[in-house]
Amino acid sequence: MAFANLTIGILGLSSFWRRSRDYLVASIVAYPSWFFADGLGHVYSLVVQSNDAPSNVGTILFTDFLMPILVVILLWLSREERTRLKS
């Protein structure tokens, strides 16, 4: 798990230096897809295995679904700023 976090962090930081919209979008696609799939795994564990531990259905479950939505919204909101900075 630590290497997955490291990979996403490196993608995010390198997209800052690269300053390419396509590279940023690729980095952002990696983050929500990973977290959303992780959230589905938590829901599966809750429903099938009745795992209601706080580390499975507590704050982490909401984070797994809300953070990807927030990141995609921020990407969408930044589209006009990026085009303004290019001109």
Automatic annotation (TrEMBL):
Keywords: Membrane, Transmembrane, Transmembrane helix. The chain crosses the membrane at residues 23-45, 57-77. InterPro entries: DUF6790. It comes from the Bacteria. Pfam families: DUF6790. This is Uncharacterized protein. It comes from Prochlorococcus marinus (strain MIT 9303).
